Amino acid sequence: VFRRRRAPAPAARRQRTIKIRDAAVARRALIDHADVFSNRPAALFAVPLVTGLRRRRSDNILSVPYGSLWRALRCNLTVELLHPTRLASIEPLQRDAVESLVADVADRSAGEVVVVRERIRAAVFPLVVRLCFGDGLGEHQLRELQRLMKDFVLAIGDANRFPGKSWPARLLHWTRLHRLRAFRRRQADYFLRLIAARRQTRHTDDGVFRPYVDSLLDLRVPDADNTCRSRRALTDDEMVSLVSEFLGAGTETVVSCVEWTLAHLVIEPEAQDKLHREVIDGERHRVMLTPYLRAVMLESLRLHPPVPLVMRYAHAASPAAEEMTGLPLPAGGGARMHFMVRDIGRDGKAWTEPNVFRPERFMAGGEAEGVGPLPGPKEMRMMPFAAGRRSCPGMGIGMAHVGLIVAALVREFEWAPAAAARGRVDLTELDGFFKTMRTPLRARATPRHARPRYTTAYQVVNHI
Ligand code: HEM
């Protein structure tokens, strides 16, 4: 029996993954050597399977290589929607979402168990859809969008488990492949129909803010030669990927962060009481992001960053990369860098009792006084929104959404574990597309007032 020997993989194709758990090393790479560490690996997910395209990258901000196209897309999102000066115009939409959430929970009979994740998603998703498409989508369209986004997350998971991209694998699993591609077509068709409708109506909309899709329709990005000499409109594929990214990133990160935060407040009634007192007091002074609320959110993000792993691709040719990691990178091959966000936030060398939920560490006089959601100019202790040029542009709006929701839920209800859980909350993490709770949080919400007081007069634009 003859078996052909396998030729060793050429050096240029061999890739090595380096895991980084040290905040100082991560800071040096992502901030000091940003030129080297501003690209993600080409195949973040099994993109060709999900997109059905003969491309290795998707077309969204997260995936495009560092360069003029990325700059144009990111700048558009930031300037048009996420910049702190835009938060004031988004506030009425946030308030609608919070009011509908409070009404939704209050509608349940006192003491009824609430599956927290489902209720939060039901309030946040319509908000994100309004930010994306503006007003005017009906209940039916909203439900269809929600179903597509749920299927999208499942499709990514399925594609990542796909047994290979070779032709035999494709033939053997053609039904799965067919399903994935059909899904992508369905998603694209539906998004493009909504985008086309928006193209017709956007000039007659006198809303206070400009939805994301309007800005994408007007955007002109650098042409294929990657210089800024000629510009073009976005393709349909790009529009679909960007809308999908906006709906997914804008919803699931916030849902995950609120669920984890509430889980800790359910376990620790003293922290919940303290937060309740402070929220009431803050309301009197028309301040939303009070110090303890901010501390609770940061502590939750430190322990449970919704994106637990940040990936980068560093080219081998760079001496900076070698110097930074202290590891010889494979000649010609480059290396994948995995920045372990969750491990950095729980590093025993940087944090006392790192696995304990203790918001006080972020308060005045605490060990992490002055630490914020993004790394400071000199020191980095945690990175829930990553760091450097490709850090999260949605940090401000994400923190504002989470803060408003947590404040309203604690102001209106007293939260306790579901009786069936015998007072226990399972904090086991599930590694998926985002880091979520393995068992969705189920809690009892007892109204604190005879009738919920939905309307608030917060100033959202507030020191995040
Ligand atoms: C609590 C909320 C959020 C958290 C914890 C979070 C976290 C992150 C992290 C860690 C990254 C970096 C990923 C990497 O480098 O591989 C990221 C990137 C990104 N996030 Fe967020 N995010 C949140 C909310 C949002 C929101 C609300 C939006 C938009 C509406 C958003 C849009 C994006 C985009 C477009 C990127 C890619 C940036 C780039 O490559 O330049 N995120 N986010």
From TrEMBL:
<keyword id="KW-0408">Iron</keyword>
<keyword id="KW-0479">Metal-binding</keyword>
<dbReference type="GO" id="GO:0005506">
    <property type="term" value="F:iron ion binding"/>
</dbReference>
<dbReference type="GO" id="GO:0016020">
    <property type="term" value="C:membrane"/>
</dbReference>
<keyword id="KW-0812">Transmembrane</keyword>
<protein>
    <recommendedName>
        <fullName>Cytochrome P450</fullName>
    </recommendedName>
</protein>
<keyword id="KW-0732">Signal</keyword>
<dbReference type="GO" id="GO:0020037">
    <property type="term" value="F:heme binding"/>
</dbReference>
<keyword id="KW-0349">Heme</keyword>
<dbReference type="InterPro" id="IPR002401">
    <property type="entry name" value="Cyt_P450_E_grp-I"/>
</dbReference>
<dbReference type="InterPro" id="IPR051103">
    <property type="entry name" value="Plant_metabolite_P450s"/>
</dbReference>
<feature type="binding site" description="axial binding residue">
    <location>
        <position position="392"/>
    </location>
    <ligand>
        <name>heme</name>
    </ligand>
</feature>
<keyword id="KW-0472">Membrane</keyword>
<dbReference type="InterPro" id="IPR001128">
    <property type="entry name" value="Cyt_P450"/>
</dbReference>
<dbReference type="GO" id="GO:0016709">
    <property type="term" value="F:oxidoreductase activity, acting on paired donors, with incorporation or reduction of molecular oxygen, NAD(P)H as one donor, and incorporation of one atom of oxygen"/>
</dbReference>
<dbReference type="InterPro" id="IPR036396">
    <property type="entry name" value="Cyt_P450_sf"/>
</dbReference>
<keyword id="KW-1133">Transmembrane helix</keyword>
<dbReference type="Pfam" id="PF00067">
    <property type="entry name" value="p450"/>
</dbReference>
